[in-house]
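Working notes for the structural subgroup meeting. M.R. asked for a predicted model of this chain before we commit to crystallization trials. I am recording the input and output together here so anyone reviewing the notebook later can reproduce the run.

Input as submitted:
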Amino acid sequence: MSSEQAQSGTGAGAALPTAGAMRFEVTTLPVADVDRAKAFYERIGWRLDIDFNPTPTTRNVQFTPPGSPASIQFGQGTTTMTGPLQGLIVVVQDIAATRDELIGRGVEVGEIWHIEPGKGPVPGPDPERRSYFSRATFADPDGNTWVLQEITERLPGRD
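Returned structure, recorded in C-alpha cell form:
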C-alpha cells in the first residue's frame, strides 16, 4: 500500500481519482407526501438543512442525522423514483439507547438482533458487544427502511 493510500484511508489497490478524494454526501429518498416525510425526520431529531422551492413546480427538502457528514433529500417534482429504499444504514454508538430514544419519539423500531457467524441473525444484542454485529430496523412513513448498526470501534482505515 502506498503512503498516499494509507493516509487517505483507501483500501489496498484503490487509487484516488485524479481530481482528489470523493465523499458520499447525500442520497435521495422516494416519498409520496413531502410534508409527512418532513414531519417524520423532524420528529426523530434529524437537522433540517433546506426546504425550498427552486422552481414553482419543485420542492427540495434535506435532513442530516446528528453527527453525520451525509444527508438525505426528498421532494416534489424532483425525482421519478418509485418504491422505498431498503437497508439504509445509520451507525450508532449505543444501539439500545438509540432504539429507546426513537421509540420515545413515536417511531416503531424492531427488536435488536445480531449477526452470529455461522448462524446468521440471532435475537438480542451481540453478547460481546462487538462492533458491526448488533442491529435494529425502522422505517419512515413511505417504507424507506433504516438499519441501526452499533459501531463502537471502527475497522482499521475507517476513522
